[in-house]
Design a protein that fits this description.
alpha/beta, Rossmann fold, 2 domains, four-stranded parallel sheet
């Protein structure tokens, strides 16, 4: 993609974005999206893979972003943007301005919501292993911060840090050509009473629900490319996610965009109406004594009043479709003057 004409001046001579080498999950893809859009909008940016002592190629799945790749250099006049998993490295910058992009709050805090004691031990273990500063977030007070989610914004505010929003859109599904063709596919969708879930998140709750409702069709989503995933979403009615939602997760957004209803727990980013803007009836607490009854009630409603239930997610779907434009606006506000 060619650079757009932009009369604004770049705030930094260059932005280096640090990404774990050979990693292929939502966070690394967001980092590649960011570098691509920065260059398109007029802020020179390049990817730097970590560990810095090793050489990495851009993973094949992310080569479509055509990001420049450079070696790590700590140079005056430049910004080095670190994801929250590399806060210790950010504190080592001496000449460049270091900054943190918070994509997963819980990667830093270690919180998983199952056991407060284990959460505290996990946080202490990460300190001992040097994954986070010994002083915790207090050590990061002097750096610029960017928040992928409203959940991250609130977390940072609680610690006296103001962050600029920088929220990546879901890839592929929010491209203009895809969105243009989507209404016809939604109208033609033949849906069954199928419940999708991520087998890597909320496994204990998923097992509980599958045991309680053995007659229902639960389908794990794993190993599918984006075309296959879309086809599955268009053939079912519900996606459930009882993971810890450390940021603005992608699967719930992908499901909603394809006409699925969504039920989540009340953890992390699902606790606010900015990251997950849906009716509270679809946000259930697995710890509540009436959880199974609440889940059954909402699922039966989705199965038997599907169109009415889908309408509850219309505003959420529109928000998702607007994510690319919002991302560009946030990049412009943060990096161009």
């Amino acid at each position: 993609m060619n650079k757009q004409k932009n009369m604004q001046k770049s705030r930094y001579q260059k932005v280096l974005v640090v990404c774990p080498g050979n990693a292929m999950t939502a966070g690394p893809e967001a980092l590649h999206q960011l570098v691509e859009r920065m260059n398109v909008l007029g802020q020179t940016a390049a990817m730097v893979y970590h560990p810095f002592s090793q050489a990495f190629a851009t993973p094949p799945a992310y080569q479509k972003y055509r990001v420049p790749v450079e070696k790590y250099e700590d140079r005056s006049g430049e910004l080095i943007l670190f994801p929250e998993i590399f806060t210790q490295q950010a504190l080592k910058a001496r000449h460049a301005q270091a900054a943190i992009w918070w994509m997963s709050v819980n990667n830093f805090t270690g919180v998983r919501y199952q056991s407060p004691m284990r959460d505290r031990l996990r946080f202490l273990k990460n300190k001992i292993k040097g994954r986070i500063p010994w002083r915790g977030i207090d050590a990061l007070q002097g750096l610029p911060h960017f928040a992928q989610s409203h959940y991250a914004t609130l977390f940072l505010q609680d610690h006296g840090i103001d962050a600029l929003p920088l929220s990546d859109p879901i890839p592929f599904y929010t491209e203009a050509s895809y969105l243009e063709a989507l209404p016809e596919r939604l109208a033609q969708a033949q849906r069954t009473n199928r419940i999708f879930y991520n087998p890597h998140k909320g496994a204990a709750v998923t097992a509980q629900l599958k045991a309680a409702f053995p007659a229902w069709d639960f389908m794990p989503l794993s190993g599918f490319n984006r075309q296959e995933l879309a086809q599955h979403f268009l053939g079912g009615k519900l996606y459930m996610d009882f993971g810890h939602h450390p940021g603005k997760d992608r699967l719930p957004r992908e499901a909603v965009l394809h006409g699925c209803c969504v039920i989540t727990g009340r953890y992390g980013s699902t606790t606010n109406d900015v990251d997950v803007p849906m009716d509270p009836r679809y946000k259930l607490d697995p710890r509540a004594p009436h959880f199974l009854a609440d889940f059954e009630r909402e699922v039966q409603r989705i199965f038997h009043a599907t169109a009415e239930s889908q309408s509850d997610f219309a505003a959420y779907s529109r928000t998702i479709a607007n994510e690319p434009a919002n991302f560009d606006a946030q990049i412009t506000a943060a990096f161009l003057t």
